[in-house]
């Protein structure tokens, strides 16, 4: 989810007063209003964008929260912006905040005259960004149409906007599957994350997005998965790669070594005269396939030779004798 600079969107300074904000919004909203730009999707999106910015900073309570978020986010960026910014700390809570339109139909008429409220009664509508929804708990923009000077507003029906939420899990959780308790804004639900997900995978929670307009259906919530880096394994699709140290005598003589997998230890047979950085394949010991969790990728084990420490004088002497014999071969 991206941070929204509402001041830049409206072209006003960060200390702008209400009069300046309203004047800037009126100018931009008239420019991009759908009734002025019929069929122009780009103008329609710009109209929604400036309306969202206006709603966020013209309301005193929303503006106070937005300022807290903005200052914290900018501080995080100045300090290097490590990892992903934690938006969940700013997520609106049930009964804590709710969306209320900050402009009545009368105010809208005064500002825009005979222009409609962003569309006609048959339009499908469109919502504010996930950034706005996360902070203020609001679903879609309410749309309507002015049917003459005396008819007032008629609300439309529109499906709720989908939402996205990033969820971080471990590689072990991605292997076995896991669950997360998600606050959807009105209730807490347990979401199942299937086996085999990887960074960027989306888990759909139907009907858990923003509320619809009128009798419109709720949108969906998509969990965007981030699988954290693992200290032992690297991942390549459904395959895993790990490094396993072996003693030099094991490399020369061969033998069996234990290899840790995400599903327990297995035995790997090392043939005699194994070189360092040799790659062995353990079939079916990788990650489960997301599409078919009964199928697994492979685990590749790269050997890394380790030398013994604190050899005795006798052992060192024997190694020297061995080295001399090899030099004369």
TrEMBL record:
<dbReference type="GO" id="GO:0051082">
    <property type="term" value="F:unfolded protein binding"/>
</dbReference>
<dbReference type="GO" id="GO:0042026">
    <property type="term" value="P:protein refolding"/>
</dbReference>
<dbReference type="GO" id="GO:0008270">
    <property type="term" value="F:zinc ion binding"/>
</dbReference>
<keyword id="KW-0479">Metal-binding</keyword>
<dbReference type="GO" id="GO:0005737">
    <property type="term" value="C:cytoplasm"/>
</dbReference>
<dbReference type="Pfam" id="PF01556">
    <property type="entry name" value="DnaJ_C"/>
</dbReference>
<protein>
    <submittedName>
        <fullName>Molecular chaperone DnaJ</fullName>
    </submittedName>
</protein>
<dbReference type="GO" id="GO:0006260">
    <property type="term" value="P:DNA replication"/>
</dbReference>
<dbReference type="Pfam" id="PF00226">
    <property type="entry name" value="DnaJ"/>
</dbReference>
<keyword id="KW-0862">Zinc</keyword>
<dbReference type="InterPro" id="IPR008971">
    <property type="entry name" value="HSP40/DnaJ_pept-bd"/>
</dbReference>
<dbReference type="InterPro" id="IPR036869">
    <property type="entry name" value="J_dom_sf"/>
</dbReference>
<dbReference type="InterPro" id="IPR002939">
    <property type="entry name" value="DnaJ_C"/>
</dbReference>
<keyword id="KW-0677">Repeat</keyword>
<keyword id="KW-0863">Zinc-finger</keyword>
<keyword id="KW-0143">Chaperone</keyword>
<keyword id="KW-0235">DNA replication</keyword>
<feature type="domain" description="J">
    <location>
        <begin position="5"/>
        <end position="70"/>
    </location>
</feature>
<dbReference type="InterPro" id="IPR001623">
    <property type="entry name" value="DnaJ_domain"/>
</dbReference>
